[in-house]
């Protein structure tokens, strides 16, 4: 069991009450507390389908392995903390943005910092957003979430000299890996370490091998490499290791009915085993650090 910190409507943090390890998990896309000022025009059901449904529950017992879990409570369709702060879709704005912008291909596709499309052909809004609205979301939701994650990581790194961060997501079961231009079998998990730059390769391979031993198909950086939260959190040269994990919804979720399937409990049990193994990995690498 652990303890719980709550920033109402923004995030929760689960912390271990006993042995602590520098192992931090976060689930930025599983929130479904819809702010009163969202004022979306698309059906709520469409927004619910855009969530990383119950990923926070899959990882809810990480405290038993001495790890902490940060979870966003607001939906990613309101503001996406896994995008850069300036990745703003100008098509959404009712007025000129008063500062620099850097819209990426995600914004052009309607899935930037603030979503324009909940899915292709279905707009989130029937209106444009004011600068004040966007700034309020950044100040009241985006910044507090990033600050909470940074505090967790900095505190663990200060006390232990190293920290391991796992950024948790789910992906549509239709996602597939592509190798040398050939479409391969749907992976069950995709690990993203930004092409080997965000964490030690040994940790990436440890996660891959642990999942494969449990019978899962695992891809690395294909098609998901890790985005803003991994980018900001990573500095392997300083002992800051960050990796993204994507779980196929087909393993635990009925994407048509938008509800759990019978396999949910089995997957959660396997996630618990993976987290426990991560704790052992962390201990072994802290021991080697102490020996040095």
Describe this structure in words.
By secondary structure, the protein is of the alpha/beta class. It has one domain (2-291): 3-Layer(aba) Sandwich (Aminopeptidase), CATH 3.40.630.40. 31% of the residues lie in helices and 21% in strands. α5 runs antiparallel to α7 (264-291). The radius of gyration is 19 Å and the shape is globular. The relative contact order is 0.16.
Topology:
Elements lengths: L1 E6 L3 E6 L6 E5 L16 H6 L5 H4 L9 E5 L32 H4 L8 E3 L2 E2 L7 H30 L2 E9 L6 E2 L2 E2 L5 E4 L8 H13 L4 E3 L7 H6 L6 E9 L4 E2 L4 E2 L3 H28 L1
Parallel strand pairs: 3-4, 3-7, 7-12, 10-11
Antiparallel strand pairs: 1-2, 2-4, 5-6, 8-9, 10-12, 13-14
- In CATH, the architecture is 3-Layer(aba) Sandwich
Give the count of structural domains: 1
| CATH topology annotation | Aminopeptidase
Query: In which order are the strands of the major sheet placed?
Result: 1-2-4-3-7-12-10-11
Low-pLDDT runs of 5+ residues are none
Following the backbone from N to C, one meets helices and strands in this order, namely EEEHHEHEEHEEEEHEHEEEH
Q: Which class in CATH terms?
A: Alpha Beta
Assembly type of the shown chains?
A: single chain
Number of helices: 7
């Amino acid at each position: 069991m652990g303890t719980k910190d709550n920033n109402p409507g923004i995030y929760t943090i689960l912390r271990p009450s006993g042995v602590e390890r520098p192992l931090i998990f976060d689930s930025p896309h599983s929130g479904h507390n819809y702010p009163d000022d969202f004022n979306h025009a698309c059906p709520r059901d469409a927004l619910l389908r855009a969530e990383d449904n119950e990923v926070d529950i899959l990882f809810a017992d990480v405290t038993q392995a001495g790890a902490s879990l940060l979870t966003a409570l607001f939906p990613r369709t309101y503001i996406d903390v896994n995008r850069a702060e300036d990745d703003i879709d100008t098509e959404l704005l009712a007025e000129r943005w008063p500062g620099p912008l850097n819209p990426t291909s995600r914004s052009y596709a309607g899935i930037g910092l603030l979503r324009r499309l909940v899915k292709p052909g279905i707009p989130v809004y029937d209106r444009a957003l004011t600068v004040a609205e966007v700034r309020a979301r950044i100040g009241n939701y985006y910044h507090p979430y990033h600050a909470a994650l940074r505090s967790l990581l900095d505190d663990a790194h200060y006390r232990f000299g190293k920290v391991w961060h796992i950024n948790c997501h789910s992906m549509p079961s239709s996602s597939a890996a592509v190798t040398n231009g050939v479409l391969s079998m749907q992976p069950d998990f995709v690990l993203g370490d930004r092409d080997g730059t965000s964490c030690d390769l040994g940790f990436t391979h440890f996660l891959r091998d642990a999942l494969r031993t449990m019978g899962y198909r695992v891809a690395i950086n294909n098609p998901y490499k890790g985005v803003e939260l991994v980018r900001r959190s990573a500095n392997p040269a300083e002992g800051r290791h960050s990796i993204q994990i994507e779980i196929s919804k087909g393993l635990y979720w009925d994407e048509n009915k938008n509800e759990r399937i019978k396999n949910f409990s089995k997957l959660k049990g396997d996630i618990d085993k993976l987290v426990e193994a991560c704790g052992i990995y962390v201990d072994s690498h802290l021991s080697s650090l102490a020996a040095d």
